[in-house]
């Protein structure tokens, strides 16, 4: 009942930091109007922070940070989400269960929608159902692709990786970029964010049509793509265009997956790439296209396809009689061959990923998933792998991350083309990346330009220290 009314139980908010902006809006303001209200105070807050505390030291930079992929370096501004190494992600202070309890779902569904997550990320506020529906309609109305983008995607070879195709389709949308057009006309810096927002909303709206077209072209060339239904939410339309609109549980799974994958603070490779490229005042489309190619790497977004490949190989080798001992043996075999265990470990997290737990809970609640051999194997693997990885002694985090299970659920529901899985992640990650692109322009953040060191220079510095 609370959930239907868009309110949140106190119990579910017990752990929300007291400084979190978190209330239901009674108004029916649009997303842009809501942002217009919020932005001046944030601009003022940042101005004062710079003026009064610009010289405050936040941390040390060690040689190990510089040669270690900048791990642990606190050097980015990112408001929408924070990743705690132990408890995992919070979106503007809200945990995944908080979001599940408070963010509006689609009509007939229970899982939060992508647009309600987008609203939370952008504004720090929980939208009302009415606001979510208005945003859903706006996205549906903007969802159709320009004819030249359709033609472009249709001209790509089927053998080209779906992620490469996604990046091409997204980059091509910048043909109609409002931000770029306004920049060329000489817009004022204070206007950057509104044009960036227009592009960002348009990009989020069009991603499902690009992603579904790639899926159709590569795997089901004889299928007709349905027209976008103006009464459906973003993921409802995406699922329908993929050909799974009749599968309520898969559509709900996609809603959950896309919402909770939307943002994972700023330093992950895709988010950081969008932020870096956006800081050059490239428009949101090409900034996000760049991010998609970071997402396409096996240590980042491609891991979900790797997990499935690995779990299926395990299933093939072990056969039907799956025991913990056999799984343990298979994990050791993988490690001894010098490979990583996909779906385990994380650059920041040091505990099981709450996104993994949310997807597991979804599986536990669906009898058909509970009894699925591949899902059972994933679950058993997650019970065995941490001890093996601890004994192996290398990874700082022996626990499952979200990718340990995400692809296997899609596989169970018949979406078996695992080279495609990262594309779904790409539809999701836009939520966080566009949020940061809008805010970076609203706050007037400068061109990102860290200083680099050579090995010799670091060695000289280290000698001076002795
Ligand atoms: C996610 C990942 C890239 C993080 O990398 P990282 O921050 O460098 O991780 P760590 O600091 O724990 O790595 C320390 C060592 O443990 C190893 N390690 C990390 N995760 C491992 C895993 N899942 N299986 C085996 N070894 C692993 C690393 O390869 C590294 O070995 P090295 O010292 O020989 O180079 C890494 O854990 C990984 O490759 N996981 C598998 C892929 C995956 O699931 N990616 C999705 C992430 S959401």
Strand order, biggest sheet?
A: 1-2
Percentage of residues in helical conformation: 55-70%
CATH architecture: Orthogonal Bundle
Sketch the topology as an H/E string, one letter per element.
HHEEHHHHHHHHHHHHHHHHHHH
Low-confidence stretches: 1-26
Look at the structure and give the CATH class: Mainly Alpha
C-alpha termini separation: 65 Å
Strand % is under 5%
Q: At the fourth CATH level, what is the homologous superfamily? A: Citrate Synthase, domain 1
**Structural class of the secondary structure composition?**
mainly alpha
Shape: globular
Q: How many strands, what sense, and barrel or not for the largest sheet?
A: 2 strands, antiparallel
Tally of separate helices: 21
Radius of gyration: 22 Å
Indicate the CATH topology: Citrate Synthase, domain 1
Ions, cofactors and other bound molecules: coenzyme A
Q: Name the average pLDDT.
A: 92
Number of strands: 2
Defining key terms:
466 residues, mainly alpha, Citrate Synthase, domain 1, 21 helices, 2 strands, globular, binds coenzyme A, Citrate synthase, Citrate_synthase_AS
Can you lay out the helices and strands and say which pair or pack?
Blueprint: H1 31-53, H2 63-67, E1 81-84, E2 88-91, H3 96-102, H4 114-123, H5 129-141, H6 147-154, H7 162-172, H8 178-185, H9 192-219, H10 234-242, H11 248-260, H12 269-278, H13 284-295, H14 303-318, H15 324-336, H16 354-365, H17 367-370, H18 373-392, H19 403-412, H20 421-442, H21 455-465
Antiparallel strand pairs: 1-2
Task: Summarize the structure in words.
- The protein has helices at residues 31-53, 63-67, 96-102, 114-123, 129-141, 147-154, 162-172, 178-185, 192-219, 234-242, 248-260, 269-278, 284-295, 303-318, 324-336, 354-365, 367-370, 373-392, 403-412, 421-442, 455-465, and strands at 81-84, 88-91.
- The chain is an all-alpha fold and 466 residues long.
- It has one domain: Citrate Synthase, domain 1 (Orthogonal Bundle), CATH 1.10.580.10.
- It has a two-stranded antiparallel ribbon.
- It is globular.
- The model is unreliable at 1-26 (pLDDT under 50).
- Pfam families: Citrate_synt (PF00285).
- One of its GO terms (biological process) is carbohydrate metabolic process.
């Amino acid at each position: 009942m609370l959930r239907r009314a868009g309110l949140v139980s106190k119990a579910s908010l017990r752990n929300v930091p007291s400084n979190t902006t978190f209330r239901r809006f009674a108004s029916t303001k649009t997303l842009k109007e809501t942002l217009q209200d919020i932005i001046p105070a944030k601009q003022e807050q940042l101005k004062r922070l710079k003026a009064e505390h610009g010289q405050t030291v936040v941390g040390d930079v060690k040689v190990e940070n510089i040669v270690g992929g900048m791990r642990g370096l606190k050097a980015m501004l990112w408001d929408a989400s924070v990743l705690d190494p132990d408890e995992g992600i919070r979106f503007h202070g809200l945990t995944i269960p908080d979001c599940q309890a408070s963010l509006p779902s689609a009509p007939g569904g229970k899982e939060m929608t992508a647009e309600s997550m987008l609203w939370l990320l952008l504004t720090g506020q929980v939208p009302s159902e009415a606001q979510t529906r208005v945003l859903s309609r706006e996205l549906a109305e903007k969802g159709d692709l320009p004819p030249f983008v359709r033609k472009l995607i249709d001209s790509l070879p089927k053998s080209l990786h779906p992620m490469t195709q996604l990046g091409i389709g997204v980059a091509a949308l910048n043909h109609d970029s409002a931000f770029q057009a306004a920049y060329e006309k000489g817009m004022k810096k204070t206007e950057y964010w509104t044009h960036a927002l227009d592009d960002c909303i348009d990009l989020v709206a069009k991603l499902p049509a690009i992603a579904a077209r790639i899926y159709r072209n590569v795997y089901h060339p004889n299928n007709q793509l349905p027209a976008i239904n103006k009464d459906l939410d973003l993921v409802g339309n995406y699922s329908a265009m993929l050909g799974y609109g009749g599968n309520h549980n898969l559509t709900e799974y996609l809603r959950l997956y896309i919402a909770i994958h939307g943002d994972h603070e700023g330093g992950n490779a895709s988010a950081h790439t969008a932020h870096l490229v956006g800081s050059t005042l490239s428009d949101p489309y090409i900034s996000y296209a760049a991010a998609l190619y970071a997402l396409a790497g096996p240590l980042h977004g491609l891991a979900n396809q790797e997990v499935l490949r690995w779990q299926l190989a395990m299933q093939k080798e072990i056969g039907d009689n799956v025991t913990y001992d056999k799984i343990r043996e298979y994990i050791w075999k993988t490690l001894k061959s010098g490979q990583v265990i996909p779906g385990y470990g994380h650059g920041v997290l040091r505990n099981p990923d709450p996104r993994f737990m949310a997807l597991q809970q979804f599986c536990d609640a669906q009898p058909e998933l509970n009894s699925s051999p591949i899902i059972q194997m994933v679950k058993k693997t997650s019970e065995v792998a941490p001890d093996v990885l601890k004994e192996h002694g290398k990874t700082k985090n022996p626990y499952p991350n979200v990718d340990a299970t995400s692809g296997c659920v899609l596989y169970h529901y018949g979406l078996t083309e695992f080279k495609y899985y990262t594309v779904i992640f790409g539809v999701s990650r836009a939520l966080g990346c566009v949020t940061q692109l809008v805010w970076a322009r609203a706050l007037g953040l400068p061109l990102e330009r860290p200083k680099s060191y050579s090995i010799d220079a670091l060695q000289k510095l280290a000698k001076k220290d002795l």
